[in-house]
Amino acid sequence: MYQKILVALENGRADETLVPHIAALAYQLGSALLLVHVADGFAARNFEQLKLTESEEIRADREYLEKTAATLRAGGLTVTTLLALGNPPTEIIRVAVAERCDLIALASHGHRLVADIFLGSTIEKVRHHTAVPLLVVRAGAGTTPPFSST
């Protein structure tokens, strides 16, 4: 059903909930995973235009992606990584289409109206601009995935 799942990682605590859930789903379905992190700091957003060199943040994000991928690969999953630069919702949608992903997995922080107005909501922006199905996992909603890899 889902051959390729884009997993949008934040390089933060929310990933500790998202990754085990998606790994378990991938085991059950035999899905490949594409781990994506969108670096969105000043250097990332202006990387091409200003011909910048990689910042320490971008290097750390790349290392995080590779470390997470290595852990999942050691468990037997097929995993690729992509570090995108720019606006997270825009890049997640672009990559999902370009890589022909059939599911986008994201973590939700459970913000409410006021926080979403000030902080923005990547999930809201992605869901309004893509036809690719979304799987949203609430960050901190327990670490036991809904499926077992055994």
SSE topology sketch:
Elements: E1 4-9, H1 15-29, E2 32-39, H2 42-45, H3 56-74, E3 79-85, H4 88-98, E4 103-108, H5 113-119, H6 122-128, E5 134-138
Parallel strand pairs: 1-2, 1-4, 2-3, 4-5
Short account of what is shown:
By secondary structure, the protein is α/β, with parallel strands linked by helices.
Walkthrough of the structure:
With 150 residues, this protein is an alpha/beta fold. The chain has one domain: Rossmann fold (3-Layer(aba) Sandwich). Helix content is 42%, strand content 21%. The chain contains six helices and five strands. The chain starts with a strand and ends in a 12-residue tail after the last strand. Mean pLDDT is 82; it is low at 113-120 and 146-150.
Q: Can you say what the CATH homologous superfamily is? A: HUPs
CA(first)-CA(last) distance: 20 Å
Which bin fits the share of residues in helices? 40-55%
Rg: 15 Å
Total domains: 1
Order of helices and strands: EHEHHEHEHHE
Count the helices. How many? Answer: 6
Number of strands: 5
CATH class: Alpha Beta
Q: Give the overall average pLDDT.
A: 82
Low-confidence stretches: 113-120, 146-150
CATH architecture: 3-Layer(aba) Sandwich
- Would you give the CATH topology? Rossmann fold
Going by helix content, strand content and strand pairing, the class is alpha/beta
Strand content: 15-25%
- Placed side by side, the strands forming the largest sheet appear as 3-2-1-4-5
Major sheet: 5 strands, parallel
Instruction: Estimate the global geometry from the Cα principal axes.
Output: globular
